[in-house]
């Protein structure tokens, strides 16, 4: 191999991709698999014939690295490039377009050369809405293509840092995906781990929304609204069974486990974890009207579980800070759709409705509770609160309407006054003719008797002896 040919960068060492750097890049970092890279390139055959060029189009080329979006030699070569670097890749057919070529410009079994300039790259975005909330930079590839799923038991090595470089967490920890918060694992790490392969080591940059949010974490020393950076290695994991793999009995058993786990979290005031567990039950069992549950006994158990978790969700949403009254109302209603006379469902929906300003509807729910349980003092007290609220609303409405009518009366009076003035302006010329000059009155004018017209139209305003408006 000569210097001009470049360095073999294939893992197999088969000289399938040779790289020659013509301009050094900046720094030491290179893009990892999953990064969105931006490059310029010129592609030629070995005889110098150009078959493609982003420079000729004046349009840089973007693609996701390491995901098979480009020919194999590009995934290998571009992953070695630093920002600003320019290199030439010489690509054997098996790392390019192979025996088929890419007619009409690339013949079969063609060795290709690409001059590539690395313009920039963005780390792989793992956040649900692709808002750069969770960015991954792979340090070491994993050894297994499978990934953990929600509910899997994972063991990870991790190190968490603040923007100033301070390490706030460094440990090996085992936990169940979905329960990470109980082990002080933030949402961003959990979401990212569902994309990790066994043995993978990656750097994660996590925005506050997926980190420790506005509360921070006092135990770990993470301030509120902090961007955090983790280096995480997935040591091992055991996947949980997927829903589609479960039979009816397994779904019901898993739902019971999840419900009990949620209730334990609720008792510990870990409301967000409780919500997660209860919602998993809903996702497992929400198809009870269908034929998924093959016996009446299964349907009865599933219905009872669903009623219970919807009631629990309504309660949790009333307890969180700040309370989520719309969600509480929604889940209480779902419980009542399954069990219309459920006292807890009526009471919790009544609480949510009252907080939402729907006292009339809340009153109906509380009255149904008292009808079913006459000794229920809590519901009786809520009825008094609803009635007082409704009375206050009526008084406010009465005051509002009174003010509205007063405004209308004042407006009518102003309009009448304006009409009167307009009428006076219309007869002003006549009044001016009676006087010696504008604004002056004669003795005859002051002593005159009203005309027949004026007697027939008493609302016409004329000037009295003192120059004031007067109704005749």
The DSSP helix count reads 12
Q: Order of helices and strands, N to C?
A: EEEEHEHEEEEEEHEEHHHHHHHHHEE
What integer is the average pLDDT? Answer: 88
The largest sheet, given as strand count, sense and whether it forms a barrel, is: 7 strands, antiparallel
The percentage of residues in β strands lies in 15-25%
How many runs of DSSP E, i.e. beta strands? 15
Which of globular, elongated, flat, extended, rod-shaped describes the shape? Answer: extended
Oligomer: single chain
Q: What is the CA–CA distance across the termini?
A: 121 Å
Report the helical percentage: 25-40%
Protein topology:
Layout: E1 7-8, E2 17-23, E3 36-45, E4 50-53, H1 54-57, E5 61-64, H2 72-78, E6 86-91, E7 112-122, E8 124-125, E9 134-140, E10 153-161, E11 167-176, H3 187-193, E12 201-206, E13 228-238, H4 248-267, H5 271-285, H6 296-319, H7 325-338, H8 343-355, H9 359-372, H10 377-434, H11 443-447, H12 452-456, E14 461-463, E15 469-471
Antiparallel strand pairs: 1-2, 2-6, 3-4, 3-5, 3-7, 6-7, 8-9, 9-12, 10-11, 10-13, 12-13, 14-15
